[in-house]
Design a protein that fits this description.
With about 575 residues, this protein is an alpha/beta fold. The protein folds into 3 domains: about 90 residues, Arginyl tRNA synthetase N-terminal domain (Gyrase A, domain 2, 2-Layer Sandwich), CATH 3.30.1360.70; about 250 residues, 3-Layer(aba) Sandwich (Rossmann fold); about 170 residues, Isoleucyl-tRNA Synthetase, Domain 1. The chain has 19 helices and 14 strands. Strand 2 and strand 3 form a beta hairpin. Helix 6 packs across helix 7.
C-alpha cells in the first residue's frame, strides 16, 4: 500500500474510533489550500445525525485525535471550517519519497486477470486524418496506458469506416471528375470529396448513383470493390503515417466492410425476435427502440443495405466472440452519445449478456482556434501538418537557446517535444469539454504545457547528472526533516498513484495532467529555494532523492499520456 493510501486508511480508522461512525461512511480527501494534508467532513455528518455545530464537533474530534496520532503517519490534527484536518509526519514523507523512487510506483492490481476491450480513433476511409481525429486517437491510447498500469489486459481496437456513404461518393467522384489530379494521397482525395458534395447538391441524380454504388459494394461487385480497395489503400497509408508519428498502436484494425454480412444476419434476427419492424412507407427495417425511451433507428435501408448502426451490432458480437471481455469502451465525440445509447440498448434487446459491460464515452468537439472543421466543405487542417508545425515551433525555440548538442539531436528533441506538446494540449482538457486548439500556444516552454513538464523533468535529471549520481541506485533517507518547499514536492509525489488510479477508473487522463502540472510547480519552487549541490548532509542526499523521484514520476506520468521525455532540452 502506498504511503498516501496508508495515511488515508489510518485517518479513517482514527475517525471511526472517535466518532462511532462506520469506516466506509467516513470520507477522507485531499483538502484545498493550506488546510492540512488530509481532511474529513465527518463533523458535518455527525451534526446532521445528532445535531450540534460542525465547527464545535470538529474541534472536539481534533482534540481527541491529537493524543492518538501515530508518529509514522501524522504529527498533528486540527479543526478548520468544520473539517478535521490531518498533517503528515516527516516519517510518512520519508516513506512516500522512498516509494516515489521506484519505477513501478503507480502500478496497481484492480484489473488483474481481467480483459478490457478499448475502441478508439476510428477514421473514415476517403476523409483526411485531420486535427479533429487526434482527440479520439490519443485519448483512447492514453486510457489504454492507464488501464494497463492498473493491471488490466487491454485490447486496442481501431474500427475504420471503409463501407459507408463517403466511400461510395468517392468512387463516384473518381469516375466523374477526370479533370482532377490522380487520387494519389489524402490531400488530393479531399479535393474529390469536396467536389462531389458540391455536385450532389446541384445534381440530385448523382446522389442516386452514389446509392447504387453503395449497393454494389455490399453486393460484392468485383469492379466496384477494386475501386474501393484503391481508395482504402491510399487512406490507410495516411492513417499509418499519423499513427507512427503519434506512437499509437492497435491490436486489431478492422474495417466496417468486414461486418456487412454478419450485420444483415443480426437485422433478420431482430425481425424474428419482433424488436424490429418494416416501415410501411419506406420499406426500411427499423429497430423498435421507442419502448426503451430512445428514438427508433434504421437497421436496413429499403434496398437492403446496412448502416453504421447495423454494423456496430456485428462489431460488438465480434469483440465478445474474440475476447469475452470484462469491460468494453468505445470513445467517440459527444455528438454520438444518443447513438451509442441506442446501440447498447439494442444489444440488450437482442439478448446479448455482455451489453451491460459495453460502454461508450463521449468527448467534446475540437475546433481550430474556434472554427469547426468540415471535411465536405474542405475546412480541415491535416493532423500531419499540425504535428510538423509544432516540431518547427520547437526548433525555433531551441535555436534561441544556448546548447552544445548536434543538429541531429536537436531534430530529435524538437520531434519529441513538439509531438508531446500537441498531445498534452488535448489530454489536459476534461473529456466532455470542447477544445479550441492553438498550435503556437501548445508548444510554449512555460505555462500549462507538455514542454514545460518535459523541461522540468530534464532539469531534475540535470541536478543528478551534475552531482554524478546514478538515480537507479539512489535511496531516500529512512527519516528526515523537511522544510516547507520540500514538503510540497513530497506531498505531490505521495499522491501520484491515486491520480493514476483515478484516471484509470474514470477514463480521465486530464486528472493526471493536472497532477503533473502541480508537481512541476512545486518542484520549480523547490529548485529556486533549496540548493542541492552546495547543501550539506543530510540535506544534500534528501534533495537529490527529491530530484530523482520528481524526474521519475514526471517521466512515468508522461509515459501514461503517451509522451516521451528527451535526454536534453
Amino acid at each position: 500500500m502506498t504511503a498516501f493510501a496508508n495515511a488515508v486508511e489510518h485517518a479513517r480508522k482514527l475517525l471511526e474510533k472517535s466518532s462511532g461512525e462506520q469506516g466506509g461512511e467516513i470520507d477522507v480527501t485531499r483538502p484545498r489550500g493550506e488546510y492540512g494534508d488530509l481532511a474529513s467532513p465527518i463533523a458535518f455528518v455527525l451534526a446532521k445525525k445528532q445535531g450540534g455545530n460542525p465547527n464545535e464537533l470538529a474541534a472536539k474530534l481534533a482534540a481527541q485525535l491529537s493524543t492518538q496520532l501515530p508518529d509514522a503517519f501524522f504529527d498533528k490534527c486540527e479543526p478548520a471550517g468544520g473539517y478535521v484536518n490531518f498533517f503528515f509526519s516527516d516519517a510518512l514523507r520519508a516513506m512516500a519519497l522512498s516509494q516515489a523512487l521506484q519505477g513501478d510506483y503507480a502500478t496497481g492490481r484492480e484489473g488483474q486477470g481481467r480483459t478490457f476491450v478499448l475502441e478508439y480513433s476510428q477514421p473514415n476511409v476517403g476523409k483526411p486524418f485531420h486535427v479533429g481525429h487526434i482527440r479520439s486517437t490519443i485519448l483512447g491510447d492514453s486510457i489504454g496506458n492507464f488501464l494497463t498500469a492498473r493491471g488490466w489486459s487491454v485490447k486496442r481496437v481501431n474500427y475504420i469506416g471503409d463501407a459507408g456513404a463517403q466511400v461510395s461518393k468517392l468512387v463516384l467522384a473518381s469516375r466523374e471528375f477526370k479533370d482532377l489530379p490522380p487520387m494519389k494521397d489524402e490531400r488530393v482525395m479531399l479535393k474529390y470529396y469536396v467536389r462531389v458534395h458540391q455536385e450532389i447538391e446541384e445534381k440530385p441524380e448523382l446522389a442516386q448513383q452514389a446509392q447504387e454504388i453503395l449497393a454494389a459494394i455490399e453486393a460484392g461487385d468485383d469492379a466496384t470493390l477494386k475501386e474501393v480497395l484503391f481508395i482504402r489503400s491510399k487512406s490507410y497509408e495516411a492513417f499509418q503515417r499519423n499513427y507512427d508519428m503519434l506512437g499509437v498502436r492497435f491490436d486489431d484494425v478492422l474495417g466496417e466492410s468486414e461486418f456487412i454480412a454478419r450485420s444483415k444476419e443480426i437485422a433478420h434476427e431482430a425481425l424474428e425476435k419482433k424488436i424490429a419492424f418494416k416501415d410501411d412507407k419506406t420499406a426500411a427495417l427499423v429497430a423498435n427502440l421507442e419502448p426503451r425511451g430512445l428514438p427508433n433507428t434504421i437497421l436496413l435501408r429499403s434496398n437492403g443495405t446496412t448502416l453504421y448502426f447495423t454494423r456496430d451490432m456485428a462489431l460488438a458480437d465480434w469483440k465478445w466472440g474474440k475476447y469475452e471481455f470484462d469491460e468494453g469502451l468505445v470513445t467517440t465525440s459527444t455528438e454520438q452519445n444518443t447513438y451509442f445509447k441506442q446501440v447498447i440498448a439494442f444489444l440488450g434487446m437482442l439478448g446479448r449478456d455482455y451489453a451491460p459491460r459495453y460502454k461508450h464515452m463521449g468527448f467534446g468537439l475540437v475546433t481550430l482556434q474556434g472554427e469547426k472543421m468540415s471535411t465536405r466543405e474542405g475546412r480541415v487542417v491535416l493532423m500531419e501538418d499540425v504535428l510538423n508545425a509544432a516540431i518547427d515551433e520547437v526548433k525555433k525555440e531551441l535555436s534561441q537557446r544556448e546548447h552544445d548538442y548536434p543538429a541531429s539531436e536537436e531534430d530529435e528533441i524538437a520531434r519529441t517535444v513538439g509531438i508531446g506538446s500537441v498531445k498534452f494540449a488535448f489530454l489536459k482538457v476534461g473529456n466532455s469539454k470542447n477544445i479550441s486548439f492553438n498550435p503556437t500556444e501548445a508548444v510554449r516552454f512555460d505555462g500549462d504545457t507538455g514542454a514545460y513538464l518535459q523541461y522540468t523533468c530534464v532539469r531534475a535529471r540535470n541536478i543528478l547528472r551534475k552531482a554524478g549520481i546514478d538515480a537507479t541506485k539512489l535511496k531516500a533517507p529512512a527519516r528526515a526533516d523537511f522544510n516547507e518547499y520540500e514538503r510540497k514536492v513530497v506531498y505531490a509525489l505521495a499522491y501520484f498513484p491515486e491520480a493514476v488510479s483515478h484516471s484509470a477508473r474514470n477514463y480521465e487522463p486530464h486528472v493526471t495532467c493536472d497532477y503533473l502540472l502541480k508537481l512541476a510547480a512545486a518542484f520549480s519552487e523547490f529548485y529556486e529555494k533549496c540548493p542541492v549541490a552546495t547543501a550539506q548532509e543530510p540535506d544534500k542526499s534528501k534533495r537529490l532523492a527529491i530530484a530523482a523521484a520528481t524526474a521519475s514520476v514526471i517521466e512515468s506520468g508522461l509515459a501514461l499520456l503517451g509522451i516521451q521525455v528527451p535526454a536534453r532540452m
